[in-house]
């Protein structure tokens, strides 16, 4: 498990457009790509009440089941972002209002789900960043726990535990180091 630090109070003011301007000035310069990864645009929709969020990543890999998502969100978030690779399944939800509420109560900055969520109207009222591929009313199974704190890949990027994640309405960025403006 990574040792995450609590982000500074202005951490969520770091917009993805400003960060890419600074850290990826020439989009075709592959040297910059090693420092900053950009998730494929328009894959994820915003569902949380907090549209801009950032923090160090904690990861879960699971497919149509969410026991490790629940376990992670029951732990202190310390301003981290939970990145859930659900294999891009659109057949059930990996996050609902009760788990999202755990995230709020335990200090998580945001949750990114490569899959679906449910209870989207309630999640939209929460002070939590939530991005997902879409919604589905069906809850997930509880049979296979999945894996925790492993590198996950989707949308053209790989997120490792402890990486820094920056998300807003313009996109999602991943960096090995904390970025400053």
UniProtKB/TrEMBL annotation:
Report which reactions are catalysed by this protein. Answer: 4-hydroxy-4-methyl-2-oxoglutarate = 2 pyruvate; oxaloacetate + H(+) = pyruvate + CO2
Q: Where does substrate bind?
A: 96-99, 118
The entry's Mg(2+)-binding residues are 119
Q: Which Gene3D superfamilies match?
A: Ribonuclease E inhibitor RraA/RraA-like (3.50.30.40)
Supply one GO molecular-function term: 4-hydroxy-4-methyl-2-oxoglutarate aldolase activity
A biological process from GO: regulation of RNA metabolic process
InterPro entries named in the record: RraA, RraA/RraA-like, RraA/RraA-like_sf
SUPFAM superfamilies linked to this entry: RraA-like
Entry-linked CDD domains:
RraA_family
The annotated subunit structure for this chain is: Homotrimer.
- Chain's role: Catalyzes the aldol cleavage of 4-hydroxy-4-methyl-2-oxoglutarate (HMG) into 2 molecules of pyruvate. Also contains a secondary oxaloacetate (OAA) decarboxylase activity due to the common pyruvate enolate transition state formed following C-C bond cleavage in the retro-aldol and decarboxylation reactions.
Which NCBIfam families does the entry link to? NOT-MenG, PRK09372.1
What is the similarity comment for this entry?
Answer: Belongs to the class II aldolase/RraA-like family.
List the protein's name: 4-hydroxy-4-methyl-2-oxoglutarate aldolase
Q: Species name for this entry?
A: Edaphochlamys debaryana
The upper taxonomy is: Eukaryota, Viridiplantae, Chlorophyta, core chlorophytes, Chlorophyceae
């Amino acid at each position: 498990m990574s040792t995450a630090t609590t982000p500074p109070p202005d951490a969520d003011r770091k917009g993805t457009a400003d960060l890419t301007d600074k850290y990826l000035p020439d989009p075709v310069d592959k040297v910059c790509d090693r420092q900053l990864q950009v998730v494929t645009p328009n894959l994820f929709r915003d569902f949380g009440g907090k549209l801009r969020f950032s923090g160090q990543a904690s990861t879960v890999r699971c497919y149509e089941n969410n026991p490790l998502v629940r376990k992670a969100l029951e732990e202190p978030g310390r301003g981290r972002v939970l990145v859930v690779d659900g294999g891009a399944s659109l057949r059930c939800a990996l996050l609902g209002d009760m788990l999202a509420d755990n995230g709020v109560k335990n200090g998580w900055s945001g949750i990114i789900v490569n899959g679906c969520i449910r209870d989207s109207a309630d999640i939209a009222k929460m002070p939590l960043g939530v991005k997902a591929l879409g919604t589905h009313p069906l809850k997930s199974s509880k049979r296979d726990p999945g894996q925790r704190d492993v590198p996950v890949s989707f949308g053209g990027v790989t997120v490792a535990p402890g990486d820094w994640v920056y998300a807003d309405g313009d996109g999602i960025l991943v960096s090995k180091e904390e970025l400053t403006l």
